[in-house]
Amino acid sequence: MAVLDMEPKEVFRYFEEICAIPHGSSHTELISDYLVNFAKEHQLKYIQEECGNVIIYKQASAGYENAPTVILQGHMDMVCEKDAEAEINFLKDGLKLQVKDDYIFADHTTLGGDDGIALAYALAILASSDSEEIKHPELEVVFTVDEEIGMLGATALDASVLKGRMLLNIDSEEEGILTTSCAGGVLGEVTLPFRPAEVEGVCYEILLEGLQGGHSGVEIHKERGNANILMGRLLFELSEEMGFGISAISGGLKDNAIPRAARAVIWLDEENQDTLKVIVEKFEETIRKEYRASDGAVTVNVHKLEETEGIMIHPGQKEMLIYILRNLPNGVQKMSMDIPGLVETSCNLGIVKTLEDSVQLQVSIRSSVESEKRELSDKIRYLTEFLGCDYQESGDYAGWEYNPDSKLQKIMVDVYEKMYGKQPKVEAVHAGLECGILSAKMPGLQCISIGPDIMDIHTPKERLSISSTKRVWEYVKAVLREIK
To answer: pLDDT in tens for each of the 484 residues of the chain?
Structure first.
């Protein structure tokens, strides 16, 4: 079956056209120009921003002139991944679409249903005439660039050209879920400068490995062990029993990933070698018991190294480092009181590394409440600067706070119940979405994110459900009809 033969034809027509245009992240010029040409062909007012964002405006249907303006929003870039056997140049070639049973997919490549389907829905609505069944308020349709590589388009968007305060984001991948909140975040970087001291004694390497790790937004609530935090706990226990020096400490690869392994190089007197091994063995036994449900395979091992010279962190600063590792906030800090099961605020000590004259720690801080994000970052700043560290922030992005009084949410829940005889799931995610950035730019904005079923996004196995696409299309049209 050809894509054009599937229902809803008006949606899949545009989806096929979009898939024929290269539009990977950082290379959205062609798709941006395609959207501009669409607006020109349909005599619609538009704005094309310097970054490539496109905004298309459409007047209200007859009888909807006094309804509140609605913003439809999606991003135009796709993640370009392929199997080894795929013959495609993502900069020049379109996708080879295939259909099997209820799914559309591409030939050994990603499909770009995330978020090409949002563009297809929006263009089908924009192309409709007032005589058709699609009735809607005044529309402002926002297509952003480079969402997949840091929500760059949403960040660059000039929101002053938008008057709507109801936004329907079509960038979710599971039908029947209304996403109503997401976390904002910021990266905190702590630098502990140290004066080097001469080494004494024998050198040992401590390796803490075998933790499961995971995404610090999606899996922080699963209480998995953080290798950096656990290494700090072990060093504290050692300091309670004997003297030693630290030459190096490291752990984690990405600030937004729960670290699975950590390493420390220490120096101690020869008479303490047996004590070291006993403490480490007992520590391994303890944390295996504590984390038996999530990280039962964790191991802690010590190995004697042959080094006879080097430097250590000055003893006073070593104590500061251990103090920070023992007291730095980590993991879930607060659960939402509005949405059961939602992590509202968290932080993750993702990276620790030793440089020539300092130790750096990177902490990923997340919250769906902006004031809580700021409070947690300020708390870490105060703790670490009090100890003589430098604290810097980067990559700050806004959260999207849950609004229990959202009129848009009520409309969308009511419409769903009428259409399907059951309530949709109203959920939030402890990760970033464009809705957070846009909400920060437009005070009072009400947002909901929805989408049809798309499986295995960002992989060559990505596939879009045809039947779900049709149901969500009918749902979007019904929601627009109800906003009066």
So the answer is: 567 789 999 999 999 999 999 999 999 999 999 999 999 999 999 999 999 999 999 999 999 999 999 999 999 999 898 888 899 999 999 999 999 999 999 999 999 999 999 999 999 999 998 767 899 999 999 999 999 877 899 999 999 999 999 999 999 999 999 999 888 889 999 999 999 998 989 999 999 999 988 878 878 999 999 999 999 999 999 999 999 999 999 999 878 789 999 999 999 999 999 999 999 999 999 999 999 999 999 999 999 999 888 889 999 999 999 999 999 999 999 998 887 888 999 999 999 999 999 999 999 999 988 899 999 999 999 999 999 999 999 878 878 888 889 999 999 999 999 999 999 999 888 877 899 899 989 999 999 999 999 998 888 889 999 999 999 999 999 999 999 9
Class at the top of the CATH hierarchy for domain 3-183+400-482 = alpha beta
Classify 94 in phi/psi space as left (phi over 0), alpha (psi -120 to 50) or beta: beta
Cα separations in angstroms, 85 against 5, 103, 109, 304: 29, 21, 10, 47
Distance CA 443, CA 426 (A): 22
Cα separation, 362 vs 174, in Å, equals: 33
Given 138, 147, 401, 453, which residue is catalytic? 147
| Residue 147 bears catalytic tag | yes
Does domain 186-397 fall under CATH 3.30.70.360? My reply is yes
Domain boundaries, the chain: 3-183+400-482, 186-397
Catalytic residue among 17, 77, 140, 175: 77
Q: Which of 406, 400, 458, 393 is nearest to 432 (CA)?
A: 400
Asked about 482 being catalytic, the answer comes back as no
Nearest CA to 88 among 9, 2, 20?
20
Predicted TM-score of the model (pTM): 0.72
